[in-house]
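Bench log. Compound arrived from synthesis this morning; before running ITC I wanted a structural hypothesis for how adenosine monophosphate sits in the protein. Inputs:
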Amino acid sequence: MSFTTFGLSAPILDAVAEQGYDTPTPIQSKAIPPAMQGKDVMAAAQTGTGKTASFALPILEKLAKGKPVEANHVRALVLAPTRELAAQVAESIATYGKHLPLRSAVVYGGVKINPQMMKLRKGIDILVATPGRLLDLYQQNAVKFKQLEVLVLDEADRMLDMGFIDDIRKILALLPKQRQNLMFSATFSDEIRNLAKGLVNHPVEISISPQNTTATTIKQWVHPVDKKQKPALLTDLIHHNKWEKVLVFTKTKKGANQLVKYLHNENIKAAAIHGDKSQAVRTKTLADFKLTDAKKGSVKILVATDVAARGLDIEQLPQVVNFDLPIVAEDYIHRIGRTGRAGMKGQAVSLVSADEFKQLTDIERLIKQLLPRKLVDGFEPNHNVPESKLDLRPLKPKKPKKPKTAGKSGPKGQPHSEGSPSGKKPGTKNKKSGGLNLQPRKKSSS
Ligand code: AMP
């Protein structure tokens, strides 16, 4: 199957081709046709499956034909649970729509509202938003829904986990009844079905079997090693496995810089990407990294911190290394979601020292599996990483979202993670996987 079979117009097909996609992913093959026919769709699909294009392309096609957007109005609304996902989705929409005269934008909590109000003034064809901030904008008359034609609920299960149900219901009540609804969720729990009842009309239900998702394509393991030996072990792994393109995660910016310096001394081309680097430098570094195969001497190893790695869209990345384990277990899922995308094979290797045992067990508890361990000859640790046992106790359920109060500081009515690019705040424990095949979760416990 090719994208041309969907009946998409040339500007969209061109943008897709420029991304290098030639075959639709399973979710795209199943969701695009009914969505193009204007039907409601309910799809079980995780991040990493290509789901964004599966709703973005039909929406772009539909909006390219209709009436222009009026001031402060939106024609399609995509609701997403977190700032990171919202930003990522908005970026994809901008990419797929780059040859169309449509405006898209993203709004989320935790940042100033005024620039977002300004953005909305002229009207926005496709708005990606987190629920709390959208309601704030609505209350300030900055956004109007009279022209709304399509609603997308992205990662619906995660939105419920994060306590957004009331906000979602409030938003639904503001939207025109006559609209197309597209709902995406990693799982179809009873709670999701309940929400869907008041949302979608005779939806086409789509489910992507696990073997087609990113999940099963990521191989993960741990190399236990002493902290001091990590740079040498990484060097050894790079040489030994002939890794050509590796995304390495460190906990801190300083750690990233030190590692790059170490690798340079070992004659390995590396560059760091983190919050102290300007956007221009980050963009250039990333471009160099992407060029690795084509251009001799370009960056082979990209060392990133979690915050900087958000939104990095590097296709076909075969190898991710956790030089340090993340402090927040959910970041592990985000990190390894950088590999094995859209059905590509990927490997995620973690270098774990004894002091990181707690982080390791937190991760294993979150992903509900023990990570296999492999000792590397010559790098056996003096400080043992204790054996871990899988902790199957449910993770703490989310606290229900506090009702909004006027004058509250911080992102009004939003869980903290929304305003924090790292998501390293309390209240994010239940984050859904970014492309990892987690076991089906109990609705309130995982
Ligand atoms: P998503 O699940 O929408 O976050 O997409 C995951 C990744 O797959 C993104 O990096 C997309 O750029 C990429 N992608 C989406 N559709 C395709 C496709 N048909 N072929 C190859 N890559 C794709």
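What the model suggests: The chain has 15 helices and 13 strands. The mean pLDDT is 82.
ITC booked for Thursday regardless.
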